[in-house]
Amino acid sequence: MKKVLFFDVDGTLVDHGNHIDKIPNTVKKEIKRLQNKGYALFVASGRPKAFISDTILEAGFDGYILCNGAHVELNGKMISKRPLDKKALKKLVDILEGIKSEYILETAHHCYLKPEYEVLEAFFKTCDVDFNQITRHFNVDDVLEDTLKVEVNTKDENSQMIVDYVDGLFDYDSHGTDNAFEIYSKSVSKATGIQEVLDYLQISKENSYAFGDGLNDIEMLQMVGHGVAMGNACQELKDVADEITDSILDDGLAKYLKTIE
């Protein structure tokens, strides 16, 4: 029976905070073993593909669920792409520019950041992002139709204005601060992306696995037959997980993958 596995990136496959900047060889070995059995392995991330590091891309995953589920692809073929509503997004951009807030537009394969947006530029330089995938000079209206997600940096006093507009139109995460947001479609999540993959591959929920460590992995773990929290996961994720493996520091992912036949 064919199986499918979904992996969060930060804190699951790699952990830059603990200097695990590449996928451990033990995990790579298990990835190859499972693929040789005919199983499909997916990365599931809030990031756009332009922000997926070479160490992840070179691992040879079969597919990707990206931009919080707005982008789903398998073997280089786009299964699903759900851009933000263009009219509502245009108004959001006008608001952001009116209050001089920085933003980056993220599409399926490229990102767009104005050259004067130095705060976001400095932030992304700390995130293992390939700046060759970021266009700095562009016409905003040409990009809106394909935008899957927007990331915003604003002054604290402007945060509520953004929330007031976004609320009800889009979903958003605030990155744990009051001045940084990820804005994406209300109709997508890692879970919706997983469902699209299960339907496309005609694989039952019982033969699906997901691995994660953060709050944004809760729906993903609840969607699959086997939701596995890393030992370093937040307590909220552990509370909904079917199983908990060891932390990334103790090679927990490889240990669990070895049990899958």
How would you explain this protein's 3D organization?
The protein is α/β, with parallel strands linked by helices and 261 residues long. It folds into 2 domains: 4-81 and 188-257, Rossmann fold (3-Layer(aba) Sandwich), CATH 3.40.50; 86-185, 2-Layer Sandwich (Hypothetical Protein, Haloacid Dehalogenase-like Hydrolase, Chain: A, domain 2), CATH 3.30.1240. Helix content is 30%, strand content 22%. The chain contains 10 helices and 14 strands. It has an 8-stranded mixed sheet with strand order 5-4-3-2-1-12-13-14. A 6-stranded mixed sheet has the order 8-7-6-9-11-10, with helices on both faces. It is globular, with a radius of gyration of 18 Å.
Layout of helices and strands:
Blueprint: E1 4-7, H1 25-36, E2 40-44, H2 54-57, E3 63-66, E4 71-74, E5 77-81, H3 86-98, E6 102-106, E7 111-113, H4 118-124, E8 134-135, H5 140-143, E9 149-153, H6 159-166, E10 170-173, E11 180-185, H7 190-201, E12 208-212, H8 218-223, E13 226-229, H9 235-240, E14 243-244, H10 252-257
Parallel strand pairs: 1-2, 1-12, 2-3, 7-8, 12-13, 13-14
Antiparallel strand pairs: 3-4, 4-5, 6-7, 6-9, 9-11, 10-11
Distance between the termini: 10 Å
Mean pLDDT: 93
User: What is the H level of CATH, i.e. the homologous superfamily of the largest domain?
Assistant: HAD superfamily/HAD-like
The tally of domains stands at 2
Question: What is the CATH architecture assignment of the largest domain?
Answer: 3-Layer(aba) Sandwich
Q: Tell me, what's the shape?
A: globular
